[in-house]
């Protein structure tokens, strides 16, 4: 029988939560100064466009493909790729692919309690293309 070493973090036993009705998150590290969460987003699911006043975040894709909108610019992130979201930056992650996406979200300080939803009217709008 294998024992887990003290201090080793295991996503299978980490505190779990649901968000957006179909998405999963696991708190791998839940400190006030640093948060590390593994998340799973099924095909077609997305989060609400938002920003964090204090928290800086780094999204790192472990498996699948995520589309991340950051200040109105879309970035497609594949396994092994990440994106930094500075404090105050409007962002939104969605899964436009055919398979679930798994990724890490690293936040410093923690982002829970530091979230402001951004109305579509307040979000970045791409300028019209020249004729």
UniProtKB/TrEMBL annotation:
Which regions span the lipid bilayer?
none
UniProt KW NADP keyword: no
Q: Does the keyword Metal-binding apply?
A: yes
Q: Locate the coiled-coil region(s) and give their ranges.
A: none
Keywords in alphabetical order, please. Isomerase, Metal-binding
Taxonomic superkingdom: Bacteria
InterPro entries for this protein: Cupin_2 (IPR013096), GPI/OXD (IPR051610), RmlC-like_jellyroll (IPR014710), RmlC_Cupin_sf (IPR011051)
Note one Pfam family from the annotation. Cupin_2
Please list the residue ranges annotated as the Cupin type-2 domain.
Answer: 39-106
**What GO annotations for molecular function exist for this entry?**
isomerase activity; metal ion binding
* Name assigned to this protein: Mannose-6-phosphate isomerase-like protein (Cupin superfamily)
């Amino acid at each position: 029988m294998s024992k887990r070493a003290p201090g080793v973090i295991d996503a299978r036993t980490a505190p779990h939560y649901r968000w957006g009705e179909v998405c999963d998150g696991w708190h791998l590290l839940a400190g006030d100064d640093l948060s590390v969460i593994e998340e799973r987003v099924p095909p077609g699911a997305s989060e609400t466009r938002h920003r964090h006043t204090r928290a800086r975040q780094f999204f790192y894709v472990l498996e699948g493909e995520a589309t991340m909108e950051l200040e109105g610019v879309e970035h497609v992130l594949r396994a092994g790729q990440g994106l930094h979201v500075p404090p105050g930056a409007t962002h939104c992650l969605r899964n436009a692919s055919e398979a679930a996406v798994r990724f890490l979200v690293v936040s410093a300080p923690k982002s829970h309690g530091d979230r402001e939803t951004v109305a579509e009217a307040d979000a970045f709008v791409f300028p019209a293309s020249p004729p």
